[in-house]
Design brief:
globular; 19 helices; mainly alpha; single chain
């Protein structure tokens, strides 16, 4: 197992050395705008599927059947919206950090959006990276801090010079590894099931009706529509307004290439996630056939099976989870470095390369500290809280960008700087109000908000900015 990981690391390191030759700041931040669109599209599949997703999606069949595909269908529309609404703005403004667009409102809006992104991305990426590091540390018999340090050290080594230019190529390699591993795992599970024909219509029906979910014919139509619409806005906010997700797309030669890239990998999400859910169904069939009780936690469905089987299954699982984890965390580190370095830091003005190198190293260390602290607390409730916090921070970004685009197309007055921290307070108040609304609805009305809370969050932010703009006239 160790030899396989070392070989995998070596391949990525060789690719990074080849792509980082004659690297410049322009190459680190936006790849000199020379990336082939099809390569970016392929690499973005792996970058958008974190180690957590690789582990969790197969287990979704236990509690929600195939309803996640409704969200994935909405993703396609969302990617088209990003391609034809947001990408033209980013290319027209020639942006390196997409949050500089918020200067259209005010400098405070730009700083607020940047701070929200930095905090949410640092915590969110660390929480996502914690899960695969925890799994790998158990499988390899390493201590958790050592696993985190080794993994992040390697990511730092292959991203520190080439930045986004390198990631376009390494993410393509990692996406290929992830898809091959997923395909081979499905093939091996099918090979076990084929003689028994355990995967049948009855098995699928059991999953849909016997594990806490409703058959498709009994599900409320409103739930399907809500999932679809939520999928659209999840992509708009968590891809189109996320520096991490947009930075590779902005490396394409032209706007048209970037749009082809965005739409292509948008379509790819549906079949990839459908394969993951199919794997979940097949695993349920294997568990039933072998008389093994299903795990209490749905996320453990794939992990426990591969661990128990060992051999080739464990190897494929390890490579798959490393590929998705690296592809996710390397782009997060680069995006955070880019966002911080585009801030106005006069003390570093004459040392651009030194600033970039130091910032990249410090962010890597911060992420390592966050991962180790998560393990030190040793509680899943903390990780769940981090995910909730991160989901709330994207609402204000939606409101800020919507307000900025409104200013671009109308005479709406921007929020002035006469009241210090007014924009920051509005963006802070919106998630707090949403949290209060969600808590009240769950306790008093018995209604649990889902992805739609993101839209309410963004709407509250927009209304707050609009009211503040009116009052500042």
């Amino acid at each position: 197992m160790l030899y396989i990981l070392i070989t995998y690391f070596a391949v990525l390191f060789v690719v990074s050395r080849l792509t980082a030759r004659h690297s410049t700041d322009s190459a680190f931040y936006h790849g000199e705008r020379k990336s082939p669109w099809y390569l970016v599209a392929f690499g973005m599949i792996g970058a958008s599927i974190s180690g957590v997703t690789f582990v969790s999606v197969p287990g979704m069949v236990l509690h929600s059947g195939f309803t996640y595909l409704e969200v994935c269908t909405g993703f396609i529309v969302g990617y088209f919206a990003v391609a034809y609404l947001l990408l033209p703005i980013y290319y027209r403004e020639n942006l390196t950090s997409i949050y500089t667009y918020l200067n259209r409102i005010s400098h405070e809006a730009y700083m607020t959006g940047t701070v929200f992104f930095i905090i949410s991305k640092l915590l969110g990426a660390s929480a996502k990276f914690y899960v695969p590091c925890f799994i790998i540390s158990r499988m390899m018999g390493w201590s958790f801090p050592l696993t985190v340090i080794v993994m992040l050290l390697f990511v730092w080594l292959y991203t520190r010079r080439g930045g986004i230019k390198t990631l376009v190529w390494t993410d393509s390699v990692q996406t290929l590894c992830m898809l091959v591993c997923l395909g081979l795992i499905i093939y091996n599970v099918y090979d076990i099931l084929y003689p028994t024909l355990s995967v049948s219509k009855a098995t699928v029906g059991q999953i849909l009706s016997g594990n806490g979910t409703l058959p498709e014919t009994e599900r409320p139509f409103l739930a399907t529509v809500t999932n679809f619409i939520s999928g659209i806005f999840i992509v708009i906010v968590m891809t189109g307004l996320d520096q991490d997700m947009m930075q590779k797309n902005l490396t394409c030669r032209t706007l048209r290439d970037a749009q082809k890239d965005m739409c292509t990998y948008g379509f790819a999400f549906l079949p990839v996630n459908a394969l993951s859910l199919l794997l979940g169904v097949m695993l349920v069939g294997v568990y039933n056939y072998q008389g093994i009780p299903l795990p209490d936690k749905a996320d453990d469905l794939l992990t426990l099976y591969c661990t128990r089987e060992g051999g080739i299954m464990l190897t494929l699982f390890m490579v798959g989870i490393v590929a998705t984890s690296f592809s996710s965390v390397d782009s997060a580190l680069t995006a955070l470095t880019t966002t911080v370095c585009t801030l106005h830091l006069p003390s570093f003005a004459k040392h651009i390369k030194k600033r970039r190198t130091l910032t990249h190293l410090l962010i890597t260390l911060l992420m390592a500290v966050c991962c180790i602290m998560f393990e030190r607390f040793n509680t899943t409730s903390l990780i769940d809280a981090i995910y909730i916090l991160v989901s709330y921070t994207y609402g204000p970004l939606l409101g800020l960008f919507t307000y900025a685009m409104t200013l671009h197309s109308s005479t709406t007055k921007a929020v002035t700087t006469s009241k210090p921290y007014s924009i920051f307070l509005i963006c802070l108040a919106s998630p707090l109000l949403c949290y209060a609304l969600s808590t009240y609805a769950a306790s008093s009305l018995g209604y649990r908000f889902g992805y739609e809370l993101l839209l309410i969050n963004g709407l509250l932010t927009y209304l707050g900015l609009w009211i503040a703009g009116k009052l500042s006239r």
